[in-house]
Amino acid sequence: MTGGIVQIPSASDWSAIGVETTLAATLVAVLIVPFFARSQRGVGLVALVGVLAAFGVTLLPASVSTGHSAFFGMLIADPAALLWRQVLLLFTAGVIGIWFGATSRAVPVGDAPEFMTLLISATLGLSLMGATSNLLLLLLAMELASMPSYVLAGFRKTKRHAAEASLKYVLFGAVCTAVTIYGLSLLYGSAGTLDLGHWITATRGAYTPAAIVGVFFVLAGLLFKISAVPAHFWCPDVFEGSHVDVAAFLSVASKGAGLLLLARLWDGASHFATPMVAGMAAVLGIVAVVTTAVGNLGALRQQSVKRILAYSSIAHAGYLLSAMAVLPAGRTSLLAYLVVYAVMNLGAFAVLAGVERAAGSDDVSAFDGLAARSPVAAVAMAVCLVSMVGLPPAAGFLVKWKIMSTLATAGGAWWWIVASVAINSIISLVYYAKILRAMFLRPSTVRQEPSRLITALASVCAVTLVLMLIAFAPLEQWAASAVFWQAPVQTP
Q1: pTM value?
Q2: What number of other Cβ atoms are within 10 A of residue 442's Cβ?
Q3: 88-121: per-residue pLDDT in tens?
Q4: How many angstroms separate the Cα of 220 from the Cα of each of 56, 262, 381, 489?
Q5: Distance CA 354, CA 74 (A)
Q6: pLDDT tens column, 329-354
Q7: CB of 388 closer than 8 Å to CB of 428
Q8: H/E element holding 70?
Q9: How far is Cα of residue 250 from the mean position of the Cα atoms in its chain?
Q10: Of 170, 262, 268, 252, which Cα lies nearest the Cα of 223?
C-alpha cells in the first residue's frame, strides 16, 4: 500500500516468479505423494518433473526481457537472473539424477520426501538470491537457501561424520549470517533505502565509512556461500560427511548464487573510478589469489576424492573471483566459467557417487581399475577432470583462457593474477592425476561398476564439455547476453 492506495502485482510481476511458483507447487506435490504411494523413486520422479517444469518456465517468452523490477522493486527480472535460474535448475535435475543412480537405495524408507523437500527449498532460495538487490529479500533468500542446506549436510543421520559436518556448517553459517545482517544494517543506515543496487548506482562509488564497513561485512558473508578464503574451512569436512549428491549440490548451487549476487552488486559499483572501487577490486583480486592457492595446495595431500573435489571447489572459487575483480569486463568470462564449472562438477560427482556406491569408499584407491570395469565412466571422469585443470579437449580450457585473457587485457597488477591462475592450474594437475592414474594404470580391486544411470549422466556431461569447446561461440554469446539490470537513478 502506497499513499493509501493498494498496489496489485501486475502480470509481469507474476511472470518474474514463475520459476519460484513452480518450485513451490513441486514442494506441495512432493509432500502429498506419500499419502498415495510409498515409493521412494516416485517421490524423486515428482521432484524431477517439477524441477524440469520450472526450467520449462524459463524458456517461455514472458521470462525473456531486457530487464525490469518486479513486486515494487523487490525482485529483478533480467537476463543474468534468467541464465542463473536455467543453470541452477538443470544442475538440480542432475543432482536428482545422482540421487536416483546412487543414493536412493541408501536413504531409509520414508526419507525421500524430506530429502526432496529440503533440496527444492534450497533451490528456491538460491534462485531468489540471483534475482534481487533488495536488503530484506536478499536476507530471506539467503536463509531459505541456508537452512535446508544445513539439514541436507547431516542427512546421513546414523553417520558420525554427517552429524559433525552439519554442526560445522551450522556454526560457520550462523557466524557468517550474523556478520551479514550487521553489514546489511550498516548499509541500510547509510543508504536509507532497501534497494542496494539503486544505492550503489546513486552514490557513484563514493561511500561513507559506515557504508564501507557494511560492504566488507556483506562481502564476508558472501565469501562463506562461495567457500572462498577466509570463510572456506567448512567446505572439506561438510563435503566429506555429506551424501555425494548433497556435496555436488553445495559445490555449485550455493557457490553460484553467492557469486551472482556479489557480481550483481559489484557490477553496479565497478563502473565508477573511485578509490573505494579500486580498493575493493584489489581486495577481490587478493582474495582470489589466496583462495586459489589454498584450494590447490590443500588438495595435494588428500586421499578422499570428496575432499579433493572440496578443495578443488575452493580453488575454482578463486578462479571465478579473479574474473569478478575486473568487472564489468570480466562478466562474460565469469558467467561462461560458471556454466562450464556446473557441468564438469556434475559429471565428476556423478562418477564419484557411482564408485562410492560400488566400492563403499570415496578413497582414491576405490577408483583403481575403473577403466577396466567401466571404460565409459572412466573416460567421462577423465574429461571432467581435464576440464577442471583447464586443458583441451574440454571447455574448461577456453573459459580459463578467457579469464586469463580478460585479466591480461586489464594490464598492470592484474598480470600477477594471470600468473597465479597459470601456476595453480599446473599444481591442480598433480592431484587430479592421482585419480587418473588410479583409473587407467592400476588393477581393479572392485568388481561392481557404476550404475547405467550414473554412467549415462556422466557421459552427457563429458560430451557437453567437449561440444562446448568445439562450439564455444553460442556459450560465449549466452554469457555475454546475460547483463545485469539496475533501476535508473532519478535526477532531481
Answers
A1: 0.93
A2: 16
A3: 999 999 999 999 988 777 666 678 889 999 999 9
A4: 35, 11, 34, 28
A5: 42
A6: 889 999 999 999 999 999 999 999 99
A7: yes
A8: strand 68-70
A9: 7
A10: 262
